[in-house]
Amino acid sequence: MVDGVAQRPTLHARDVSVTYKLGMGKRLTAVDGVSFDVEPGAVVGLVGESGCGKSTLARAICGLEPLSGGAIDFGGEPVTRLGFARRPRPLLRIQMVFQNPYASLNPRRTVRAQLEDSRRIHPGSAPTVAQLLDQVDLPASAADRYPHEFSGGQRQRVAIARAVATGPDLLIGDEPIASLDASLQARIATLMQTVARETGSSLLFISHDLAVVRLIADRVLVMYQGKVVESGPTEQVWNHPAQPYTRRLLAAIPVADGLGRLPEVLPLDG
Length: 270
Ligand SMILES: Nc1ncnc2c1ncn2[C@@H]1O[C@H](COP(=O)(O)OP(=O)(O)OP(=O)(O)O)[C@@H](O)[C@H]1O
What we know:
Blueprint: E1 11-23, E2 26-38, E3 43-47, H1 54-61, E4 69-74, E5 77-78, H2 89-92, E6 94-97, H3 101-104, H4 111-119, H5 129-135, H6 152-165, E7 170-174, H7 182-199, E8 202-207, H8 210-216, E9 219-224, E10 227-233, H9 234-239, H10 244-251
Parallel strand pairs: 3-8, 3-9, 6-7, 7-8
Antiparallel strand pairs: 1-2, 1-4, 4-5, 9-10
Bound molecules: adenosine-5'-triphosphate (ATP).
The site of adenosine-5'-triphosphate has 14 residues, from strand 1, strand 2 and helix 1.
Domain ABC transporter: 11-250
Pfam families: ABC_tran
Protein name: Peptide/nickel transport system ATP-binding protein
């Protein structure tokens, strides 16, 4: 862990709700009274099936969704809906890595140009472009290429480097491995964890896959129908799930060879 982690901000979410208006007077409560903290340097997994509210919660943390109840603050600064570009300084300290790096990277700009833009936000002395690429295991020559010239996994590495270039205090991965081949998923998840640890950032890693989250997270939150139904140290939730829903999530993970529940997610090389 890097120096100064203890001085980094904590994310506090208290009784957070987000409701969407669906028209015809109907409403959908996508996030329903959720409370949790992400302490400096912590790696927290947020798991749950599709539609349970994970992305809505991630967007709310970034100030991109108005809350219908509760409060989120980051280092004491309330998170409000100001839009990504107009976020106040403390919210620039929260960076998202999205599911689809192709959509989140600018196709018309080189990797170097995109990393340079992010470096300008860094509050201290930002790593160089070459250092950023090295941190995500890409060669320095990647700097002068465009997003379409990379594979999906490589593009996600670029997206991680771009987030890290800003010097974030909190990284959020919103299903960052969901669009990747199974063989790559553990590698990219582990990379995000390593990069967060090396830079002193905390990490909220969102996935529907508890087996991958288990590889990287100290603590896990299990979300079901908008609520956090279970939370605790990852190994405790994995080995002794208290809630029927968590047991169902675990049962849905294929058993590889009788040695454990991890299928294709094990290889970390390459
Ligand atoms: N802008 C929106 N307007 C109306 N309903 C929405 C909106 N965004 C999400 N929802 C609904 O809110 C619920 C939670 O969606 P959300 O995307 O947060 O779930 P999720 O757990 O991230 O799912 P996935 O893993 O498939 O991305 C879903 O029922 C979804 O249809």
